Amino acid sequence: MPIFEAFSILILPQLLGARDLPFPRLSAYGFWCFLIGGVFVCGSIFFNVAPAGGWFMYPPLTTQYQDGLGPDIWLLGLSFIEVASLAAAVELIVGVLKTRPPGMRINLMPLYAWYILVVGVMILFAFPPLIAGDLLFELERAFDWPFFDPARGGDPLLWQHLFWIFGHPEVYIIFLPSIALVAMIVPTFAQRPIVGYSWIVLAAVGTGFLSFGLWVHHMYTTGMPNISIGFFSAASEAVAISTGVQIFCFLATLLAGRLTRSVPMLFVAGALAIFVLGGLTGVMVALAPFDFQAHDTYFIVAHLHYVLIGGMLFPVAAGVHYFFPLATGKLLSPRLGRWAFWLMFIGFNVAFMPMHLTGLLGMPRRVYTYAPNLGFDTLNLISTVGAYVLAAGVAVLLFDVVRPRKKQPFAPRNPWQAGTLEWLAEMPPQSWGVRSIPVVRSRYPLWDQPGLMREVDTGRYFLPGAADGHRETLITTTLDAMPVQCQRVPGPTFKALWAALFTGGAFIFATFAWYSAALISAVLALAVILLWLWTGTSIIPEQEQKDVGLGLRLPLYESGRHSVGWWAMLITMIGDMSAFFSLVFGYLFYWTISADFPPAALPGPGIGWPVAALLLLLASWLLTLRARHDNREDRNVRYQLDLAASVLCGVAGAAALMAGPWFNGMRPTEHVYPAITWALVVWLTLHIGAGVIMQAYCMARRWRRRLTPQHDMDIQNIGLYWHFMALTAAVTVFTIAVFPLLTSAR
Amino acid sequence: MKRGTRILSDADHRPEQRQPRQTLWQLVVAPTTWAVHFMLCYITAAVWCARFAGRDGPLAGPGRLIAVYTVVAVAIILVATWRAWRQHRWGQQAPPHDEATAGDRRRFLGLATLLLCELSLVATLFTAMVPALIGDCR
Question: Which of A81, A405, A464, A730 is the most buried (most CB within 10 A)?
Answer without folding.
Answer: A81
